[in-house]
């Protein structure tokens, strides 16, 4: 543990978020998982508590703080009964509005960022397309200029929070093929021609609504262009470091929660007249789970601190650190949640057990934000291999 993660302010933040999670989130997780989405009022409650805008400057309606503070909030929510699925849905603005803020467009900030950070509206980010996967440069959804509007046609898929969203920050092609022809448009979901073609059912993240979107001659005001035309690819790329580090934090925090649940169960569960934790094989499992979790935490926190101290998200060494941290943390959580289910035995396979949720939710972490294989290949290039 470093002092930067345990200042009096961050200790107080952690305790406040933990209490909020135990009171307002954990008791309702089963209900929200069954519903397939979070209630809109949770966004308002979280904003009122002062947590929704953590990591965003007060000048745009946020609560202030930095990437370390965001990480503290993430840890506290997961380790007190929340989940990565809940984080993905409740904090989708973490990927929906940074591009708007970076553009410096005061009108868009007033119309979309401020009400979202206040918990009044919900935003999502529309990049991935059917068949497109991680190939951002291959986007085919097209926006054609028509006077003071763009006409948008195409489709998006796997879009988090899009079923409930009020707007989608959407990657569209406005120019030539490749990364140089991509722009970002903020599209209101009540615009004629925009539809959520279907709500997607998933292996995990059940409380996080995910949609497939269709754009059929959607007329979007040119004033909703984020940044420069054909400059959207770079706006998207600039956010990848933060997204990967956030997912890495989610991964080790989930591993820690799974370990805590496994230890608690092993202490309570008796087998053949003795507590399960008295068995050497179980104790050794727990030690290995602890070791992998701590290694992932250390590497990720080191990368988070590097990102916090760097003003350049295009720094190759920072990009490498984020990729390595994410892959290390994902490897840890996948192993730890599996062992935690094994320790729980048959109960771990039951939907009524919390560890079941973490086991299912962990699987997406090695896919979203850059698949493990993609990040390994990126790391190989950055290392000169």
Automatic annotation (TrEMBL):
UniProt cross-references to Gene3D superfamilies, sorted A to Z: Acyl-CoA dehydrogenase/oxidase, N-terminal domain (1.10.540.10), Butyryl-CoA Dehydrogenase, subunit A, domain 2 (2.40.110.10), Butyryl-CoA Dehydrogenase, subunit A, domain 3 (1.20.140.10)
Ranges for domain Acyl-CoA dehydrogenase/oxidase C-terminal: 230-381
The keyword Flavoprotein belongs to this UniProt entry's keyword annotation: yes
Protein's name according to its UniProt entry: Acyl-CoA dehydrogenase
Matches recorded under SUPFAM superfamilies: Acyl-CoA dehydrogenase C-terminal domain-like, Acyl-CoA dehydrogenase NM domain-like
Similarity-based family: Belongs to the acyl-CoA dehydrogenase family.
Flavoprotein keyword on record: yes
Organism (species): Aeromicrobium piscarium
Pfam annotation, one family: Acyl-CoA_dh_1
InterPro entries listed in its UniProt record: Acyl-CoA_DH_CS, Acyl-CoA_Oxase/DH_mid-dom, Acyl-CoA_Oxase/DH_mid-dom_sf, AcylCo_DH-like_C, AcylCo_DH/oxidase_C, AcylCoA_DH/ox_N, AcylCoA_DH/ox_N_sf, AcylCoA_DH/oxidase_NM_dom_sf
Annotated GO MF terms: acyl-CoA dehydrogenase activity; flavin adenine dinucleotide binding
Residues annotated as domain Acyl-CoA oxidase/dehydrogenase middle: 125-218
All copies of domain Acyl-CoA dehydrogenase/oxidase N-terminal, residue ranges: 7-120
Keywords, alphabetical: FAD, Flavoprotein, Oxidoreductase
Cofactor field: FAD
């Amino acid at each position: 543990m470093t002092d930067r993660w345990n200042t009096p302010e961050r200790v107080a933040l952690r305790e406040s978020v933990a209490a909020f999670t135990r009171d307002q989130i954990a008791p309702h997780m089963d209900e929200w998982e069954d519903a397939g989405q979070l209630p809109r009022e949770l966004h308002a409650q979280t904003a009122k508590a002062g947590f929704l805008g953590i990591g965003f400057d007060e000048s745009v309606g946020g609560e202030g703080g930095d990437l370390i503070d965001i990480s503290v909030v993430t840890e506290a929510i997961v380790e007190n009964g929340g989940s990565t699925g809940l984080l993905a849905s409740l904090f989708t603005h973490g990927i929906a509005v940074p591009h708007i803020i970076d553009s410096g467009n005061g009108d868009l900030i007033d119309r979309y960022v401020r009400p979202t950070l206040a918990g009044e509206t919900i935003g999502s980010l529309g990049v991935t397309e059917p068949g497109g996967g991680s190939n951002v440069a291959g986007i085919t959804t097209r926006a054609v200029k028509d006077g003071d509007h763009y006409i948008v046609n195409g489709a998006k898929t796997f879009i988090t929070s899009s079923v409930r969203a009020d707007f989608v920050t959407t990657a569209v092609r406005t120019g030539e093929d490749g990364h140089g022809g991509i722009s970002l448009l903020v599209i209101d979901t009540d615009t004629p021609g925009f539809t959520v073609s279907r709500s997607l059912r998933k292996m995990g993240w059940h409380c996080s609504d995910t949609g497939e979107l269709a754009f059929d001659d959607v007329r979007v005001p040119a004033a909703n262009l984020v940044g420069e035309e054909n400059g959207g690819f770079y706006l998207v790329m600039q956010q990848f470091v933060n997204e990967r580090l956030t997912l890495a934090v989610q991964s080790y925090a989930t591993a820690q929660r799974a370990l805590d649940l496994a230890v608690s169960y092993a202490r309570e569960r008796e087998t053949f007249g003795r507590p399960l934790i008295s068995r050497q094989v179980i104790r050794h499992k727990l030690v290995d789970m602890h070791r992998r979790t701590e290694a992932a935490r250390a590497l990720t926190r080191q990368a988070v601190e590097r990102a916090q101290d760097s003003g350049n998200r295009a720094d190759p060494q920072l990009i490498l650190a984020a990729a390595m941290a994410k892959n290390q943390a994902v490897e840890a959580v996948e192993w730890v949640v599996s062992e935690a289910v094994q320790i729980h035995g048959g109960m771990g396979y039951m939907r009524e057990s919390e560890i079941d949720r973490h086991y299912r939710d962990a699987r997406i972490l090695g896919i979203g934000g850059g698949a493990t294989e993609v990040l390994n290949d990126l790391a190989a290039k950055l290392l000169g291999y």
